[in-house]
Amino acid sequence: MVNTIKSYKKTFSILVIALVVIGLLNISLGSVHIPLKQIITALFNGEVEKESWKAIVLNYRLPKAITAIIVGSGLSISGLLMQTLFRNPLAGPFVLGISSGASLGVAILILGASFLGANITSYAFTNWGLALAASFGAFIVLSAVMLAALKIRNTMSILIIGLMFGSLTSAVISILAYFSTANQLQQYMFWSFGSLGNLGWKEITALFITFLIGILLVTFIVKPLNSLLLGENYAKSMGVNVKLTRNITLIATSLLTGVITAFSGPIAFIGLAVPHITKLLFNTSNHKTLIPAVAISGAIIMLICDSIAQLPTSEFTLPINAITSLFGAPIIIWLLVRKRKIYY
Amino acid sequence: MKQPNNYIINTKNLSIGYASKKQTKTIAAQLNIELEVGKMVCLLGQNGIGKSTLLRTLTKVQPALEGEIFIDKTKLETFTNIALAKTLSVVLTERLPDSSLTVFELVALGRQPFTNWIGYLTNEDMEIILDAFEKTNTKHLMNAKYYELSDGQLQRVLIARALAQNTPIIVLDEPTAHLDLHHTINTFSLLKKLASEFNKTIIISTHEINLALQLADELWLMSPSKFISGTTSALIENNELSALFKSKHLTFNKKLKQFTINQ
Fold this sequence. Notes:
The complex is a heterodimer. Chain A contains 16 helices and no strands. Chain A is mainly α. Chain A has two domains: 1-92 and 199-344, ABC transporter involved in vitamin B12 uptake, BtuC (Orthogonal Bundle); 95-193, no CATH class. By secondary structure, chain B is of the alpha/beta class. Helix content of chain B is 30%, strand content 27%. Chain B has eight helices and 13 strands. In chain B, the strands form three sheets. Chain B has a six-stranded mixed β-sheet, sandwiched between helices. The longest helix of chain B has 18 residues, at 181-198. The relative contact order of chain B is 0.16. Chain A binds chain B through residues 1-2, 87, 219-220, 222-223, 226-227, 229-231, 233-234, 236-241, 279, 283-286, 288, 343-344, and chain B through 59, 61, 80-82, 84-86, 88-90, 92, 94, 96-102, 104-106, 109-110, 112-113, 115, 117-119, 121, 126, 142-143, 145, 147, 165.
């Protein structure tokens, strides 16, 4: 009743154990079969039977699992923040136009390249090139939305402005796509499918540091976010600086979502679905409980999605975006049919 | 700036209304309010007369057009958000947004101005919260979700939240708008008890004129022509209530202390 964290101790312990188990499972799955014991030895830098196994685990599978954890947690927390701020169950991490901005940046780089006469195999199309283009695009659209947000009192209007920017950018992308070659279109499509692999340790470090900064910002707004559950007027009457809280929330969300999208593409559904699943699981609106719960659940669900996407024992990898939606949408529908209503 | 008197709320030539770059719309002018601690005041007036505007101005949600407001002898403009939250709490008419807050969590939110950065509840906070439940007789509802409550229960819980904020002044905007007669009387007697026994200063905007006449220590009457404040008995004596409604269907009956319909 009083110490919310304590009363959910059991659920939290189960979640943490699930995270560790699914994390190990995720690392042990892949086109090359490696025994679990060897994987654990490799993780602790011990002697492994085959040198190639160690390389696969440490240079490919572990980075991918860490990416999945950061992406899942970051997007889910952002989604929760947006749902509380806009008091809207349909809000997700991308309502501020971040994914459309990032898509526009990448679209201009890939699809617009022909206008500049650039070669599609050049340096610009590496991970960092795409990440830079995505960050730049996200930054431009986000700044426009934030500038509008500073002038606007009504929080709902920000939501609509974000959606409008989304429509604008997709229109520009359509025009670019119309004039580009099949080859370019395919590469753009691949980016928009989302991807957790291909990140080296340098990129993961950048991702992780931004994640930590985002989380740090979020801890400072836990208390005002709880007051906002009673509406802006009550929050104000309890001494909360609503505008400051709103701006910190927007900055934390854009940091988390922006950097994640830059490195892994616009990953759909997680940010929208995980907060709902967690709220149903924990049956609470208290952010002191919800934020850690959403972070762990997000990581678990992302790891599961990634494990499915690898199609264990086969050499194919499915687009992660398709899996997150295929996996998540039925869960939400099932939970809603069972419980009938989610209270935010 | 200190004022040499005992008024907890005191206004001088206050004008309220809305100002924009283009024009100023004055809702009421020359408001001189003098209110002592521990009184229950009812703010009466017809729809659209500016009751909410007055309450919004007194609670610093919107600025005054002219004049001065003193809360506890201190100028209202000089209050910080937190200092004001420790002096004045509100119960609003608006519907609460959907959430799965429990009644306990909702009332505990009243401690927000006093808790640390993460909102940790100390033993003292817990005592004040439990006391708020005790005073409003809502202890049995503590573990329910607030959306499970009836309108009458929710109103008591919202008053408990204001009590948990532990402020000398509580301002309520039409607290009985959705309630039946039984719950309306319950709410009013609760508020009266908070004023007389626990020395809270209670300001209520309401349309429950008959109840206000029976229970309020003081009345603030808003009519298109003027604003009058005074003790209930004095206002009745001077026949000031008849100015409240400019209608040929209603007259104020001094003897019965209520409005009667002209047949």
